[in-house]
Every structure is written in C-alpha cells, then in structure tokens.
Specification:
This protein has one domain: Maltoporin, Chain A (Beta Barrel). It is mostly beta strands. The radius of gyration is 28 Å and the shape is globular. 4% of the residues lie in helices and 52% in strands. The chain has a 22-stranded antiparallel barrel. Strands 1-6-7-4-5 form a 5-stranded mixed sheet. The chain has a 3-stranded antiparallel sheet with strand order 14-36-35, with no helix packed on it. A hairpin with a 4-residue loop joins strand 9 and strand 10.
Length: 804
C-alpha cells in the first residue's frame, strides 16, 4: 500500500483504508473509479445530473454537489500520485489498474488541500524488465456491451521495458429515446496508455507514462415523479411545462425528446514523469505531470413526452405554442429575432470545459537512527487554467407562458407596453410563449504551493511496540476567476416578441442578469497538523488514535445570480449580502479517529475497525434558490459535525471459501448556521449524500480446483441507506434518495493452460433482482417537484481472457 506515500503493509497503516488488489478488481469487474460506487461503505459515487462524464464523489458524507471549474471537490483523486483537479472526466476507465486505495477521512498533511472527505489513489501496473507478457480481456453483455482490454509488456534490455495498454468499450443506454436523436446513457470509449520504465542503475529508476482517452456518450434523462406545485413569483413557473411531461413513480424504459438529442464528448490526455533515486538511508522522488481535459456535454431536461402531430420544435410557422423545451438546441421562433437577427435561429450550443494543469512534487523519504525514525518531506506546486464556455447566446428554456401562476400579471404589469398586452391576453385567454436565452463563459487561473513533512518515531520502549507520528503541512492557494453571462427572457405574442428581462430583476433593470468581465480573486493559506499514536498490542494487532486537520480551498460560484453583496435581493427574494465577487471562504475540519487492526486464527481472520468524530468549521454548502432552474448559492454555513463507525472483516473459512464484510455507520448534523439577519438557521441545512448505514458483503467460493483449471463463484450484496439529495432541509421530501441493495454474481473458470499461458471465462450478472434505485434527484425543474435518474437495471455478460 502507498497510502502514506511509501510502500507499507495494509495492516501497518494507521488509516481507515479500503483497498482493491488487481485480483479483486477482476473479480468485481472494476475498470475505473465509477465501478466501486457500491463496494466501499462510507463512499458514494454519483453521476453529475447533466454530465455523465463527471462524477460526484462523497466519503463520509463529504463531497461536492455541483461541478464548476471555480469550485474544487473535497475528495482528492490521484492517478499514480498525480492529483486530478477536475471531477469532469473522472468517470474515465484506466487501461491497466493494479490497485485502488480509498482513504476515508481527512488527509490534510500528506495530501493537502481538498481532502476534507478523503482521497482515492488509482495505481496502474508498471512495466517489468523480467519477461514478455500479454493480457487480453474481451467482454460482451447486455445492451450490446462489447469491450476489449489489452496489455502488452515488452522488455527491451535488462534495464529498459515498455508497456502498452489499450481499452475499447461500448454499450447502449438503458432508456430509449423515441424522439429524434440518440438514446439516453450510451457510451463509446477508446483509450490507450504507454508506460516506459528505465532502471538506469541499481538505485535510479525513471518512469514515464502517457495516457489518452476519448469518450463519446449520451447523457441520461431525468424521469419526473411529481408535477410541480407553482410558487408565486417563481422563475421556474413562468412556463407551463406539465402538459409536455411524463410522470411515473417507477422506472420508465423510454422517453422522448422534442429536438434531436445530441451526443457528448470527453477527451483526456496526460503525461507523467517519476524519477526515483535510492541512497543508503534516503530515497529522493520527483513526480511531474501535465494533464489536459476537453469536455463538451449536451443535456436535455425536458418533459419527456416529445412532439405530437402538427407541432414544430423550433417555432417555425408558429406551430409550437404548446411545446416545452429545456435544452440548448437551435431555436427559430419569434424571440430569435431579438437575439440572432431577422430570419435567423439561435445556434446549437454544447457547454465546453477546457482545462490544463501542471504539477511538480519532490519527496525525500527514509529512515534514521537504526530505523527508529521514518520520515517523508515534500514540496508541491500546482498550476491550473481552464475555461467553461456555454456560449454564444442560445436557447435554454421555452414553453407556453403559465398565465395561471400567482402574480403573473403583477410581475409584468409595470413593464411599458407589456402590462397592457398581458391584461388583454388574460382577458381573451390567448396563449403566449416565454423563452429564455443564455450565454456564459468562465475563465479561471489557480496556483497552489505546499511544504509538508511526516515523522514516525519508534522509541526503545515496550519491545519497540509504540509508534508516534507527527505531520505538518503549510499551503498557499491563489485563485482568480472571470465571469461573463447574459440572460434574456422574451415573451412571444401573436404580433411581436417583447424583452421582459427587466421584469424579472429586483432592481427593475435587465442588467441584473448580465455579467461583463466580472473578475474575482482570493488568496488563502493554511497550516495543518496530524498526530498519530499507535501500539502493537499483540502480534498482528495494532491500536491507534489519530488527530488530523485539513482544509478545502474557497472559490467562486458561477451560478450565483448576484454580482456582489450590494445588488440587493437575489432571484428568490432574499438579500444574502454576498454575490459572485465575494465568493466563499475555505472550509476546515479537525477529525479524531480511534482504530484497531488485527489478524487472528493464524491470519485467517482480519478485522479492521474504527470510530471517528469530525468537527467542520466554515463548512461550504451549495444549494439551489427556491423557484429557480439553475440559480445557486454557496455559503460557509458555520459549524457541522459527524461521527461514525467503520469495519472491514475478512474471514478465510477454509481453503475454498473466503467471506468479506464491510459496514459503515454515519451520523451527521449541521450544528451552527446563521442567516443574513443573524438568526439561527442550522435546521435549514443537512449533509448531502450521507447515508446512515451502508454495507458490502462478498463471498468467494472455489467450487473445484484441478490441473486443467479452477472454478470459482463470487456473490456480492451491497446496501446503501437512504440519503439526502440536496443541502437544504426544506427540499428533503423532493430530493431524498431511497435505500437500496444490489445483488451481483460471477461464475469463473480460470487458470486453464493454453499455449504457454492460461485462459479463463466468466459469466457475470449485476443487479440480479433488477432493483429500481435512484442515483440522483432534483426538485428545481419547471415541470416537476421531484425528478430522478434511475440506476442501471439488471445486466448480464461474459468475460473471456488470456494471459501469457
């Protein structure tokens, strides 16, 4: 294990840690980060609602609900020691994984900023100079699944080896689109990786890696559970979306879009260089990297009913008065005249994220005083620049104006000309159409630096059974961001389109929804400490107690509707006293953990368990403003705390049967938060995605073992308790995600001798009982108070592999 940035046995690491070896990854069918979502208690992984190429990762209820380039996730993801800054693209599969490590709880000293929830290490298999080897795996299964994973290791000389890895995978989605365009949820991935290892001397090694992945995919579609209850003055209720929407409390295997459903695309590329030199009592290691991400993602949040006969999606010939749309496809109705010009349509826009990052890390590690003092010292530098481009001005939302919504006439009655038009239309019952257009661009530039160190001292006491660890880290963080946004709402009447943006602004001017090169910057610094005391209380048994600090950097909320705190009321009618320009401050946590690791009965039983308590200060909470489609606020809510229990048990019942059980209990509470008037608001906030109970059970049984092969059966049962799908207590009933359990199975014939190597075949099934479960829920769509993305239904497949 490398959880403490040096190789150590799992049982000697005083950290709550879940690890998957290469063999375990094969048994569980794990190719990348997204595949472990139900296997590690305390860990939840969800797709971002409008981008399947982005993951929301939570450990112990700590994660980020929104994916913005101006906000950092609080769970650090590392690929071979390289920090992956953006959760966009984190859904990628890696061609040849050797190990995955999940470090639960804050990791503030060795891993630094943005690990208040924990860290995940993805470790790939490195080249070997010992022998030529080939691994090939082919898979086929449900929904036209086909994948091919190839790994070829080639020794070039006694000191030089190269490894080639390639991955191709495609699968259809599990919801059909009966409207125009592609189906929902399908993907097509191509990736490859080249690793080079040079053992220059007995003590000097150089590793270089290049990886590239391309993913073509179609996003999922939210399925609507309950129609929306109109709210007076709500932006979301200006549109009458319900007649165009499909509602059902159970999973629907088909929906329909109005406009052609477009594909999305993600491209990831990275270079990494690791140089390691061993001296007598010292190892010097350098890790340098450059990574680039490009992502364009198209989403449709419409009603799902599609078009009926005689309707025109684009507004041509004025036949689309009853059509509801929530997408970024072209719009050609009357409103387009004011935006694109006479006779023109607004363009198709796929929001783009283009990000580049550079990092450098220097580590010094070793042992002194007859191995009584183990140490690691490090210096770290990170630089990032990125653009999120959702322009030019394009269609976002349109549909028949909801004249029956409370205060509709009052909202627009003060606008010249429009007030009279609305009154006439209300009296005659004529239908009119509301259209919203949007353009956004955000530019960021971030820089971070840190110095850190960790010392472990084993004093000459009690037969060298005591170990004391002290860790320190000093961090500097600089963040800059520029926001450009234009937001226009137009009413289409029978005669003329009218710009009503000003009527939706608290100050009565259209400029409240416009941001022109609004820049913001913040500088942070932090000093974190960790202390661990461990005792080897018996052979193969360790007891430890740990205190650790960590922080998550502050940032800016691109979806904040206010420029700054001087603007007045936000779009929900509340004056929060801050806006985009002020941003939000860092989040801090101090965590305490008592853990126990032991192996009993001649190492046949392994029990690792811990209890923990975490105290959060200035906790960052992200929430949607009531009555809006996409306006949010991020606030440092105040104080929060959690405590819990985790256990991982492995029992070798006999030589043929191994049982594995992991359980986590989590109790969370926001204990202190104040509103703009200084009143207590702690009961208004909750933890996002923090299930109280979760467990994973697996059984590996060797049915028979012969010279010609081995037959084994693996059964897995994973349970996740109900959890909140939002950060505000007033929307729990609409965003809560129900508890569910999944049953998986795999029957494998392996180690069959063939042409100097061995082959195997496995038949597998996931979600055997076809459980209907929700992975995401939102309550802010114009058509529904509750909409969900359902998890993957039952799927089946066959793996065929050969190793030489």
């Amino acid at each position: 294990m490398t959880a403490q940035k040096r190789s150590e046995p799992l049982q000697e690491i005083p950290i709550s840690l879940a690890a998957f070896s290469e063999e375990r990854l094969d048994v569980e069918g794990i190719n990348g980060l997204k595949d472990i979502h139900s296997l590690v208690p305390s860990l939840t992984i969800e797709p971002f609602p409008i981008n399947n190429g982005t993951l929301r990762v939570f450990i112990r209820g700590i994660g980020i609900s929104d994916a913005q380039i101006t906000q950092d996730p609080p769970v650090g993801v590392y690929l071979d020691g390289v920090y992956i800054a953006r959760s966009t693209g984190a859904a990628m599969d890696v061609a040849d994984l050797e190990r995955i490590e999940v470090l639960r709880g804050p990791q503030g000293t060795l891993y630094g900023r943005n690990t208040t929830g924990g860290a995940i290490n993805l470790i790939t298999s490195r080249p070997s100079t010992e022998k030529f080897s080939v691994k090939q795996k082919l898979s086929t299964g449900s929904r036209n699944l086909f994948s091919s994973k190839t790994s070829i290791n080639v020794p070039i000389t006694d000191s030089l080896a190269v490894k080639f890895g390639a991955l191709f995978a495609q699968q259809d989605g599990y919801v059909d689109n009966t409207g125009p365009g592609g189906d929902f949820g399908g993907s097509d991935l191509n990736g490859y990786r080249i690793d080079l290892r040079w053992n220059a001397t007995d003590s000097l090694s150089v590793d270089y890696a290049y990886d590239r992945s391309e993913i073509d995919y179609y996003n999922n579609h939210y399925q609507h559970i309950r129609p929306r209850t109109p709210v007076a003055g709500s932006q979301a209720d200006l549109i009458n979306a319900q007649p165009s929407s499909v509602y059902a409390t159970n999973f629907q295997d088909e929906l329909a879009t109005v406009t052609p459903f477009q594909g999305s695309y993600t491209e990831i590329e990275g270079h990494a260089l690791t140089i390691s030199h061993d001296f007598d009592t010292l190892q010097v290691k350098y890790i340098g990297s450059y990574r680039q991400l490009f992502d364009e993602s198209y989403a449709d949040l419409g009603g799902g009913r599609g078009l009926s006969a005689g309707q025109d999606a684009h507004g041509i010939n004025n036949q689309s008065k009853s059509v509801f749309r929530l997408d970024t496809s072209p719009y050609c109705g009357q409103a387009a005249r004011l935006v694109a010009g006479p006779g023109q349509c607004t363009p198709l826009v796929k929001p783009i994220v283009d990000q580049q990052q550079w990092s450098h890390e220097l580590q010094l590690s070793g042992e002194l005083f007859e191995q009584r003092l183990k140490y690691i010292l490090g210096a770290y530098y990170f630089y990032e620049e990125a653009v999120e481009d959702n322009g030019p001005l394009h269609h976002q939302l349109s549909g028949p104006a909801n004249l029956g919504v409370p205060n509709f006439e009052e909202a627009f009655g003060q606008v010249p000309i429009l007030g009279g038009v609305i009154s006439d239309l209300l009296n005659t019952g004529t239908s009119i159409r509301a259209v919203n257009f949007l353009s956004q661009r955000y530019d960021i530039e971030n820089e971070a630096m840190a110095l850190y160190g960790q010392l472990t001292w084993t004093p000459p006491l009690w037969q060298d059974r005591l170990h004391f660890t002290l860790g320190l880290r000093h961090s500097e963080d600089q963040r800059q961001a520029i926001k450009n946004q234009q937001d226009i709402t137009i009413i289409e009447t029978a005669a003329v389109p009218i710009d009503v943006t000003a009527a939706l602004c608290s100050d009565g001017t259209a400029s409240c929804r416009e941001f022109n090169n609004l820049s913001a910057s913040q500088d942070f610094s932090n000093d974190a400490i960790s202390m661990i005391a461990a005792a080897d209380i018996a052979e193969s048994s360790t007891l430890y107690i740990k205190m650790v600090e960590a922080y998550k950097s502050g940032g800016f909320n691109t979806r904040d509707p206010q420029r700054d705190g001087k603007q007045g009321e936000a779009s929900d009618g509340i004056d929060y006293g801050f806006g985009y320009a002020e941003g939000f401050a860092p989040e801090y946590v101090t965590s305490y953990e008592l853990g126990f690791k032991t192996e009993l009965f001649r190492h046949r039983l392994r029990v690792n368990a811990d209890v923990f308590f975490s105290d959060y200060q200035d906790m960052q909470l992200n929430f949607i403003l009531a009555g809006t489609v996409a306006d949010t606020k991020v606030t440092n809510a105040g104080e929060a705390e959690m405590w819990g229990f985790e256990s991982d048990i492995t029992y070798l019942f006999n030589r043929d049967l191994m049982l594995m059980f992991s359980y986590a209990y989590l109790n969370t509470e926001v204990t202190k938060a104040t509103d703009i008037n200084g009143a207590d608001a702690s009961d208004q906030f909750v933890f996002f995605s923090a299930p109280e109970n979760s467990f994973s059970f697996a059984a590996d049984y060797t049915v028979l073992a012969r010279d010609w092969g081995r037959v084994s059966l693996n059964l897995g049962w994973n349970y996740l308790d109900e959890r909140n799908g939002g950060s505000r207590s007033d929307n729990i009933k609409n965003t809560e995600l129900r508890a569910y359990d999944l049953l998986n199975a795999r029957l494998t014939l392996s180690d069959v001798p063939l042409s100097g190597g061995n082959m195997g075949i496995a038949i597998w099934a996931k979600n055997i009982l076809d459980e209907e479960y929700e992975v995401s829920a939102i309550d802010n769509l114009p058509e529904a108070d509750r909409s969900v993305i359902w998890g993957e239904p039952a799927s089946y497949g066959i793996d065929l592999y050969y190793r030489f």
